[in-house]
Design brief:
187 residues; Lipocalin; alpha+beta; 4 helices; four-stranded antiparallel beta sheet
Length: 187
């Protein structure tokens, strides 16, 4: 007789102990889920963080003087976002522009800002590529300069990769210029 009463008491204790509480694991996962949906965590980095400028002044034996000032455009950037562990990482790559001034025998023949807008206006076929890209460099090609013109090499690359389009900007002594894509990748 004692055994059935003991079993009945144990069954009652077992049934009353199961009151439907959440387990710690379930409670923690629900808490994390509500926190991440109600709190938006975002980290933003600008690349480069500060203004940078490089000035190059070159005088050639053919009478040309080429001044290239490459600088960070602090107002324009190319955004890249990545979601990782409920945190949104935003990278904003600041645009790189180059101001080019060319003199031929002390007479200014060319002055312009080489940026994505300039490249797209001269060659519309690169528009889709240029929207996700940044100028990696504008420099004087000293091996392709002739008596009546200078050649600048321009590299436009997508951010976070080495997918690049290389171009040549040829400027003659009268200020006329042509922009052409090259087959070779300059980087």
């Amino acid at each position: 007789m004692r055994t059935p009463i003991l079993l009945l008491c144990m069954a009652l204790i077992g049934l009353t102990a199961c009151e439907g509480r959440k387990t710690m694991k379930r409670s923690l996962s629900e808490s994390i889920k509500t926190y991440t949906t109600s709190h938006y965590i975002e980290e933003t980095n600008y690349i480069p963080e500060a203004y940078r400028e490089i000035d190059i002044d070159t005088t050639l034996s053919n009478g040309f003087n080429v001044k290239i000032k490459t600088f960070t455009n602090m107002k324009t950037y190319i955004p890249k976002s990545e979601l990782k562990d409920s945190i949104t990482y935003n990278k904003k790559y600041r645009a790189i522009n180059s101001e080019v001034v060319i003199f031929h025998k002390n007479k200014k023949v060319f002055e312009d800002i080489i940026d994505k807008d300039f490249l797209i206006s001269e060659n519309n076929t690169i528009k889709d590529f240029a929207l996700l890209s940044n100028i990696r460099g504008v420099w004087l090609n000293q091996y392709q300069n002739y008596e009546n013109k200078v050649v600048l090499d321009i590299n436009l690359c997508t951010v976070e990769s080495y997918d690049c389009k290389s171009m040549k900007l040829s400027i003659d002594k009268n200020g006329n210029y042509t922009l052409s894509l090259t087959k070779e990748n300059l980087l």
